[in-house]
Amino acid sequence: MIWRISFLPIPDTDWVEKNCCLITANGLISKKIKMKKVKPLVSIIIPTKNAASRYGLFEETLRSVKNQTYPNIELIVSDNFSSDETVKIAKNFKARIIFKGPERTSQVNFAAQKARGEYIAKEDDDYLINDEYIEKAVSKCQQGFDAVYHSTVSSGDNFWVKAKALERLAYVGDDSIECAWFWKRKVFLALGGYDTKLVAGEDFDLQERLNAAGYKTGRINVANIHLGESKSLKEIFLKNVNYGKTVSPYLKKNTFFRARKLFPLRKAFLKNWRLFINNPFLSLGLIIIKVTQYFGAILGFLLSFLSE
């Protein structure tokens, strides 16, 4: 008795049909076996340090990960040895916890090395992720792209938050300002991930290296919401003093190009002038925010320079 098994080609659909034919001396027996096609695993990496007490928004971020329409996700929280309830909250959402410091660049790089996904996405711990973000990003990469741009918007009732939201709206779809936070994992690792010497400008730096290496970044029509915008001028000022203290390594890589990139007057403002004309009070608030940001950053830069 001779047994022969043959398989027809497998179509590229969510459900795969294998037609298996068994040929025996007594005749032909045919049966169909349906198997679910497994989608590529995506590892979402969230770097944290005392996120539970600093914002109170960490659970919203984790919940938005769980609400993704994409079914195959690994959630990794890369924690910088938090002393609050951050790790406990992450465990409640079935996150995989790893510990790493001293800064978020090192945290994300370490998590990327440990990730199991074919793709990785970085999210901060105070973001609300659009439900279709991961699904659309995977689809874009499957069209031949190595990384994916998305936009960021802000939400809140505070005046300064609304003024910042106006700025973010002007940047929507602008490749010179927005940076990829979703990559093929092998591409991210091939680039060495984030430059761990940088605390400010690390997203710009990685995107510049991605472009220079010839990798392709696609764009999806998705906006994630930043929930943790600064709510006072004092908070904005102090945050930018810290950025100013750490921006020097970023500028040293390509001083002229990067100083121009950080210049306060941007093409996006001219392109979207109607947006500002239609919102005069928020536009005035944004001007005050930009003056506060740059005054703080310059002060921080000078303090850093004098301390060297």
Give start-end ranges of low-pLDDT stretches. 1-26, 28-33
| CATH architecture descriptor name of the largest domain | Alpha-Beta Complex
Average pLDDT works out at: 86
| Helix content percent band | 40-55%
In short:
With about 300 residues, the protein is an alpha/beta fold.
Descriptive report:
With 308 residues, the chain is of the alpha/beta class. The chain is 44% helix and 22% strand. It has two domains: 4-36; 42-232, Spore Coat Polysaccharide Biosynthesis Protein SpsA, Chain A (Alpha-Beta Complex), CATH 3.90.550.10. It has 14 helices and eleven strands. An eight-stranded mixed sheet has the order 6-5-4-7-10-9-11-8, with helices on both faces. Strands 1-2-3 form a three-stranded antiparallel sheet, with no helix packed on it. Strand 2 and strand 3 form a beta hairpin. Helix 6 (159-171) packs across helix 14 and helix 9 (233-246) packs parallel to helix 14 (280-307). It is globular, with a radius of gyration of 24 Å. It starts with a strand and ends with a helix.
